[in-house]
């Protein structure tokens, strides 16, 4: 579903991703962990071309993102993304936030889009907030709306960029539980997070990144209990 | 000091005609200036360096030289290439619009760039194109922030339109000068003109405050 070959990313002279190779299969939940500055968010943002790739290839469903005739908007429509800072549209109601892209990109009618939106709001437990503006919501509620907004496009892949890092501790649970439901339903997910509990419980595979490289990848049990690399051990000893 | 109200009464029809032209020049100037300014702002934000240059220099020129000089260049230099004799009203409108465009462009650019980068990223990640993101996500938010500076620009433009009197475009100030010249009086015509400008600018301020209040409630 996702294939990354020799991915490199430079910001000016700073090489953030040095040589990333990974393949992610359908319905797989891959959790990316690592110290800050390790390049994990940049890696995630390369998967939908929010960061332009310096060299290497990223394939989404066998389509090369840096190919010449690729319509990046079409690919992005199939790849949902959830941000650390939620990035809800503050000038639109919750319902409008969710229906904007389905109407403008998928060319759904307003009614179709709203029906779908209400179903998703039910799923994330926020039907009563349909007409509220984002400013009036708590962080946890905002992030659940952001997830619903991404799901409204019927994405085949969901990318999560530290979705709980900006939340008050008591709100982390409600967001993780929505993500767990999603994983259970068979969504292909790539999750950058510091929530080791989530990685262990939901992840099919955990990827440890450091200094622009994938140092180690394994099932959660293997990676958390018997990591092969020193750097993994050192990182885990700090966060576990 | 005697105050000859009869001069004002005699010139009232002309002052009113001038007032209409002043309002016309200002509204026309800000509208054309806004449309031009929007595209100049987009041009200046282009990712291609050489494409930005002409827009940067447009802004540099029109903000960095006096409006009066621009007015003369346009009226005595550019306009005669297209019409003969050059229409003073057309010249005034052109100069005001081109000048306003430079300031409006910077207002638009600042407004657009003040919107958090995450907004565009969220919109693009949902599959919206660059122009869709601009139209539905960035611009509506930026516009709210642009209203106060745009209002200021409109007020400046309205006052600057009085410079058109110097090329004899028959706007408010022109008729004030005419009355002053005919009777060798200063206070009656110029106080009347000043008071009229003040009335206009205060009305705009009042209107803009209302618009702002209404927008901040949504």
UniProtKB/TrEMBL annotation, chain A:
CDD domains: ABC_HisP_GlnQ (cd03262). Keywords: ATP-binding, Nucleotide-binding, Transport. GO terms for molecular function: ATP binding. It comes from the Bacteria. The keyword ATP-binding applies. The keyword Chloroplast does not apply. Transmembrane segments: none annotated. Pfam families: ABC_tran (PF00005). Residues 2-236 form the ABC transporter domain. InterPro entries: AAA+_ATPase, ABC_ATPase_HisP-typ, ABC_transporter-like_ATP-bd, ABC_transporter-like_CS, MetN_ABC_transporter-like, P-loop_NTPase. PANTHER family: AMINO ACID IMPORT ATP-BINDING PROTEIN (PTHR43166), ARGININE TRANSPORT ATP-BINDING PROTEIN ARTM (PTHR43166:SF37). This is Peptide ABC transporter ATP-binding protein. The lineage of its organism: Bacteria, Bacillati, Bacillota, Bacilli, Bacillales.
From TrEMBL, chain B:
Residues 19-208 form the ABC transmembrane type-1 domain. The keyword Transmembrane applies. It is a multi-pass membrane protein. Keywords: Amino-acid transport, Cell membrane, Membrane, Transmembrane, Transmembrane helix, Transport. The chain crosses the membrane at residues 20-43, 55-76, 82-105, 187-208. Its main location: membrane. Belongs to the binding-protein-dependent transport system permease family. HisMQ subfamily. PANTHER family: GLUTAMINE TRANSPORT SYSTEM PERMEASE PROTEIN GLNP, MEMBRANE COMPONENT OF AMINO ACID ABC TRANSPORTER. This is Glutamine ABC transporter permease. It comes from Neobacillus kokaensis.
């Amino acid at each position: 579903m996702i294939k990354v070959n020799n991915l490199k990313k430079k910001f000016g002279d700073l090489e953030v991703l040095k040589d990333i190779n990974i393949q992610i299969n359908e319905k797989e939940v891959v959790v990316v962990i690592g110290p800050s500055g390790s390049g994990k968010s940049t890696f995630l943002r390369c998967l939908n071309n929010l960061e332009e790739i310096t060299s290497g290839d990223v394939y989404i469903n066998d389509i090369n993102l840096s190919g010449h005739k690729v319509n990046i908007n079409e690919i992005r429509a199939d790849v949902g993304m959830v941000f650390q800072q939620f990035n809800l549209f503050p000038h639109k109601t919750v319902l409008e936030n969710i229906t904007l892209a389905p109407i403008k990109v998928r060319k759904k009618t307003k009614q179709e889009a709203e029906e779908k939106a209400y179903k998703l709001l039910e799923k994330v437990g926020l039907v009563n907030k349909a007409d509220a503006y984002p400013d009036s919501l708590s962080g946890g509620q905002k992030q659940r709306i952001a997830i619903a907004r991404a799901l409204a496009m019927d994405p085949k892949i969901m990318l999560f960029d530290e979705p709980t890092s900006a939340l008050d501790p008591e709100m982390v649970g409600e967001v993780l539980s929505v993500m767990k439901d999603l994983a259970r339903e068979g969504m292909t997910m790539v999750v950058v997070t510091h929530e080791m509990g989530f990685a262990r419980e939901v992840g099919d595979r955990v990827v440890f990144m450091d200094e622009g490289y994938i140092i180690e990848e394994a099932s959660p049990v293997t990676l958390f209990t018997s990591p092969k690399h020193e750097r993994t051990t050192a990182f885990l000893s700090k966060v576990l | 000091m005697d105050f000859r109200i009869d001069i004002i009464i005699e010139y009232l029809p002309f002052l009113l005609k001038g007032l209409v032209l002043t309002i016309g020049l200002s509204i026309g100037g800000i509208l054309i200036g806004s449309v031009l300014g929007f595209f100049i702002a987009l041009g200046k934000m282009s990712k291609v360096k050489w494409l930005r240059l002409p827009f940067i220099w447009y802004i540099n020129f029109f903000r960095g030289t006096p409006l009066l000089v621009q007015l003369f260049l346009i009226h005595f230099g550019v306009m005669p290439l297209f019409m003969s004799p050059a229409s003073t009203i057309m010249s005034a409108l052109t100069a005001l619009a081109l000048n306003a465009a430079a300031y409006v462009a910077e207002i638009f650019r600042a407004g657009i760039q003040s919107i958090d980068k995450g907004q565009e990223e969220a919109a693009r990640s949902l599959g919206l194109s660059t122009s869709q993101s601009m139209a539905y996500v960035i611009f509506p938010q930026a516009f709210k922030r642009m209203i106060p500076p745009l209002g200021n620009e409109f007020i400046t433009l309205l006052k600057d339109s009085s410079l058109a009197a110097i090329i004899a475009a028959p706007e408010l100030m022109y008729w004030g000068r005419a009355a002053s010249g005919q009777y060798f009086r200063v206070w009656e015509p110029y106080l009347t003109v000043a008071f009229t400008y003040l009335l206009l600018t205060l009305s705009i301020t009042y209107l803009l405050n209302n618009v702002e209040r209404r927008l901040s409630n949504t």
